[in-house]
Amino acid sequence: LTPLNKTQVKSLAPQLKRENVKAVAVALLFSYINQKHEREIGKMLKKSLPKIYVSLSSEVAPEYREYERTSTAVVNAILMPIISNYLNELQRKIRKLGIKAPLCVMKSDGGIATKTIASKKPVGIVESGPAAGVIASAFYGRLLGIKNVLSFDMGGTTAKAGAVKEAKPEIISEYEVAGKVHSGRIVKGSGYPVRHAFIDLAECSAGGGTIAWIDKGKALQVGPISAGAEPGPACYGKGGKQPTVTDANVVLGRLNPKCMLGGEMKIYPKLSEKAILKEICKKIRLELTEAAAGIIKIANSAMAKILRIVSVERGHDPRDFVLMCFGGAGPMHGCALAEELNIAKIIVPQNPGLFSAYGLLAADFQNTLVKAIMKLIDKVNVENVEADFQKLELKGAKLLEKQHVPKMYMRFIRQMDLRYFGQSYELTIPTSKPLTTEILRQTVEKFHKKHMAIYGYAVKEEPVELVNLKLVAIGLIKKPKLKEKPLSGEKPPKDAVTARRKVFFEKDSSYIETSIYKREKLKTGNRIDGPAVIEQYDATTVVYPNWTASVDKFGNIILSAKNGGN
């Protein structure tokens, strides 16, 4: 080992101080093998500059790819002062309210972390908001005995999709941040790579506030620009002039033409019509209904694409999944998306606009530890790898102890990153303990099967390389219990129907006289045949013709296709 040039490191401190540097990322070429020098540099910098934040690549992403490891350390360094200050202020305000419970933060891998860990490794909370929605979908799926769930969250600016397979969220190991390309998946070169465990999410610019517009080629486009909350869609009456997805839904009769948020917010349908007529109809000679339906069709197409990304492109058949629709706008588009993907069943949770918060309540403490190996499987010493896994378990246990998790609630999941020799990407495969030659063989066989499912081929004759060992250290927490409601009859109460209005449906290409229901009035066991619209404070559910809606014992709306989704 070449000795560290401490004089050179010491000379950096005055320069960093002069330039008022608040955070530093340290990345040495072979630190994934030996952390000693990075740690020494970190200690020396902290000694000279006590207030500086130091991000070590060997702690943030101890993997062999130096560019991705460095990029991850840099992103982490950028976030450290921001997140630390934010969480400190948040905790101060929480304490001021008299709340003494520890502050925990949602992570991108679907777990939670204490304030201390989140502040030290903030790169782990990138995309943590959408991750909570997928965890909530997994939690509800387990509650209802459903193992495969497609999570769909549509809000004001974007729509997000994720997959839960065999009751577990799908996880990826790399993401790109701050990219100029807005895509539903990682696009190489579109941003800065981050090596970390992320729930596999796909995203598109299709939310309630997404603006529809005509491009230079006279084609109708939807997104990526959003009207936001201020001024918002034209129908809000706050000065918005551009037509949005929400305005299109107002014109098509799907949203209440008088108010939203249970009557707290007035709606102006004429402003929606005016915006679409001026910005769309006049420019490409479409009728008002045609233009509004076109906006919804384009938005639905983009959202169906992200659902395909997390299902079809990952080797899964969407017909084997149930669609969980939430977010303020999600339940309005659920039936259209399910029909596009031949999904026969949709769940709309009791509070769609607040659903992601359930994910925070259902998430466990979770830490992923990594050790780089970089050896061909036939060169692997099983005893050495087992010893490495045991060391990772000890580290994982210490991390959970710091988060006050009792030993009886600790769980450890072992994984291996495998690839065919020469490939630049790997697949994460679960493995068992203790590791034996037979278990290693079974793990490699799982790799071949997963490679076939995702990429359409497997080459069993090719040598397989063990890239990383991974250990997921989990601290189980007590899950919330949902109250079951007493069963009523199939027929909804008379006062559940609040109005009737004409609603446009694509397959009929016409407006249909439709009953409008108040969700709060519906009882467990009630059944509604589509077409119907179910309104509540935080969302609107549109039940298409040839679909039925029923209320389960937890208050969820279950939408079922009469033709089985075909």
Description:
The protein is α+β, with helices and mostly antiparallel strands. Among the domains are: 6-101, no CATH class; 210-298, no CATH class; 364-475, Dna Ligase, domain 1, CATH 3.30.1490; 494-543, no CATH class. Helices cover 33% and strands 27% of the residues. Strands 5, 6, 7, 10, 15, 16, 23, 26 and 27 form a 9-stranded mixed sheet that branches. The chain has a 4-stranded antiparallel sheet with strand order 17-20-18-19. α7 (245-251) packs across α8 (269-284), α7 (245-251) crosses α9 and α9 crosses α10 (330-341). The longest helix has 31 residues, at 66-96. It starts with 5 loop residues before the first helix and ends in a 5-residue tail after the last strand.
SSE blueprint and pairings:
Blueprint: H1 6-18, E1 23-26, H2 36-48, E2 53-56, H3 57-60, H4 66-96, E3 104-106, E4 112-114, H5 115-120, H6 128-143, E5 149-154, E6 159-165, E7 168-169, E8 171-177, E9 192-199, E10 201-204, E11 210-214, E12 220-226, H7 245-251, E13 259-260, E14 265-266, H8 269-284, H9 288-309, E15 322-326, H10 330-341, E16 345-348, H11 355-362, E17 365-376, H12 382-402, E18 410-420, E19 427-431, H13 437-455, E20 464-475, E21 497-505, E22 510-518, E23 527-529, E24 532-535, E25 540-543, E26 547-551, E27 557-561
Parallel strand pairs: 1-2, 5-15, 15-16, 22-24
Antiparallel strand pairs: 3-4, 5-6, 6-7, 6-10, 8-9, 11-12, 13-14, 16-27, 17-20, 18-19, 18-20, 21-22, 23-26, 24-25, 26-27
CATH topology of the domain at 364-475: Dna Ligase, domain 1
Structural category is: alpha+beta
Give the distance, in angstroms, between the N- and C-terminal Cα atoms: 64 Å
**CATH-scheme architecture of the domain at 364-475:** 2-Layer Sandwich
| Low-pLDDT runs | 181-187
Estimate the mean pLDDT confidence: 93
What fraction, in percent, of the residue positions are helical?
Answer: 25-40%
Task: Output the CATH class name of the domain at 364-475.
Answer: Alpha Beta
Gyration radius over CA: 26 Å
Please provide the count of β strands.
27
Q: Could you say which overall geometry the principal axes of the C-alpha atoms support?
A: globular
| Number of helical elements | 13
